[in-house]
Amino acid sequence: MSGERSLLHSLERIGILSHWIEVSLPYVDAVTSYLTLVVGLLTWRELSLGKLRLFLQSAALVALAIAVAGVAFFLRTGVSNELMPYNNFLATCTSAVLVAIVAVPKLAHKFLATPDSKLLLVGTLFFATQALYTNVLGSLGHTAPAMWGTLGFAILLFSLGWVALQMVFANERRLLSIENELVIAREIQTSILPSGGPETKNLHITAAYHPMTAVAGDFYDFISVDQNLVGVLVADVSGHGVPAALIAAMMKMAVQSIVPCAHSPGDVLQALNRMLSGQPRDQFVTAAYLFIDTQNYKARYSAAGHPPLLLSRAGTLQRIESNGLVFGITPQPHYPVRDIPICPGDRLLLYTDGVIEPENAEGEPFGDSKLEHVVLGAHMRPPSELIDRLLTEIRSWQPASLAHKDDITLIVIDVT
Length: 416
Description:
Number of strands: 11
Largest sheet: 6 strands, mixed
Number of helices: 11
Mean pLDDT: 85
CATH topology of the largest domain: Phosphatase 2c, domain 1
CATH superfamily of the largest domain: PPM-type phosphatase domain
CATH architecture of the largest domain: 4-Layer Sandwich
Structural class: alpha+beta
CATH class of the largest domain: Alpha Beta
Distance between the termini: 76 Å
Order of helices and strands: HHHHHHHEEEHHEEEEEEEHHE
């Protein structure tokens, strides 16, 4: 703003401004004279912390009030500097506070967000010195050379620019460090998921895991009791990113302790709920657990606020629901259990709500009906083809401009 004002006056002196710009020059002068302090205070606010940030914000509001009143007075009377003494007084007070804070290392460390304040101290002191010199001369009826004001302002801007670059580079280094840590976190999270399906007679199990972010809140695991007995657990932590991933990691640790009760879905879910009872209250976990006995061709199923189990059999599809409360609501919830007879040729599908929640451009979710249509259409196809087809349908349903909002986990179980 200060440079634009100086440029217009320079162009005016050499006579190359258009008439309407010359006419508007006094108005530009009045506005920039008052508002430069507002912008300057807001700039310093971005470099400040704690109470200094609040002080500068309050000072900026006072400066804005003075600017509005000063410009309004100019529009009514034609006098542009009537309230400028108040503006200068506020500038002097805030400058004194800033100089004191920048000059004292302890205060600078406490109230400034800058990595290094040495150059900022030089620029601030130089600018404050020339401003004081100019104001003293002005009060004595003398005028300081214009070059001093321009030079002082240029040095201040250079120091602010240098500090801004330091902050940018520091943030880039911090972001790079976070990215590296997220890569490691994703590798760790991937390592806690099963590397393949369990070795179980008369079953073919295929899993697909597609996180929305570097680390995710979805989780699945298999509990192999013997070659005929296996438990399949799917869980979905509310939210995304690192907090959800940490709770998912807790699930992995909890699974190790529920092996003795793997045959009882209700007991499994109650045990997991107890172990996760200390999680944050704003993050909940839904889960589904299916225990399959391939020797006797039967299964048992229970869930905690999770989408239903799908059973595809001979061209028909059944939705099997047996839900209790999500984890973290009460310490001793009841989880009802469904007994399910199975036979060769059956296909069971467990999934998280990231499959059915994606919306199209009209805000309509992918939904259960489209999921069931895809599952029935691929009943005779291999599990991997079903998963590919389903993911393709979800991607085509959701516009490319809309980012996917939830993680996707699918487990397809074929009874052979």
